[in-house]
Design goal:
heterodimer, A: alpha+beta, Glutaredoxin, four-stranded mixed β-sheet, B: 159 residues, mainly alpha, two-stranded antiparallel sheet, 6 helices, 64% helix
Amino acid sequence: MSAMLVRLLLAVGISAGLVGAWRLASAFVLWRSGRSASRLGEFARGTPGVVFFTTADCVTCKAAQRPALAALRARMGEAVQVIEVDAQDNVALARDWAVLSVPTTFILDRDGRPRQVNHGFASADKLAAQIASVA
Amino acid sequence: MDAVIGKVDHSSLRTNQAVIIIGLLVAFVLDLPWLVAVVALVMLAGTAIGRPGFFFIYTGFLRPLGAARPHILADNPEPHRFAQGFGGVVAGLSAVLLFLGAGPAGWALAWLVVVLAALNLFLGFCAGCAVYYWLNRLQVPGFVKSPPVGTVPGMRPRA
């Protein structure tokens, strides 16, 4: 096997290892947030939901994420619930859910378990697909 | 300590990070230490003039072609400059080690730069900026900027 091919395979292997490490970290975030999911008093079991972490001065949240969530609700109606959490007013909850920046959205299944997380803006299409995957 | 006073085009930063990652990966696969040296020199030159090293790819090609749009955020340019300079020094050390025949150590440093640039590009976390803000907290002279309000040090600020 040529040295270049070995290096290419090594590069792919290292990259795959890093992606795997990131996925493990994301799984840890979901596991950790799941431990405090019961503190989301607004969640009604039986309907999947989106937990939207925001802050009062987050422009992306106002200009993009909130309209995307409004579009999601318009499209899915009662089939989805959206819970908005101000990360600055709920510091402990944001810490438990490992929220480092806003907007951050979590997809909850029917039992309220966090199943997916989006760091940064997530479009209505993406959120709808994520909801469909856990519904 | 100074508050945020600057604007930073994060599209330009991301282009820079992508080119650094691609350049170093190509150098690794094709075993080209000189390419590592070129990437390091461009990073250090960019730091010296206060711009992302590969900004010309963004301003000369990607933006005119409509392949990238400006993403201007209220942010401090200094930590990004520090991060790029730090990365340039590590890439430079990598090139020196490679030229001296210390392949494993040299490529390990190159991969470190790749990983840190990828963290910034894909996850929005600038490790060099976090180090800058940490030094700012320790009141080290020269590190005068505090993180943008409400942003975890090193994370990409809100729009």
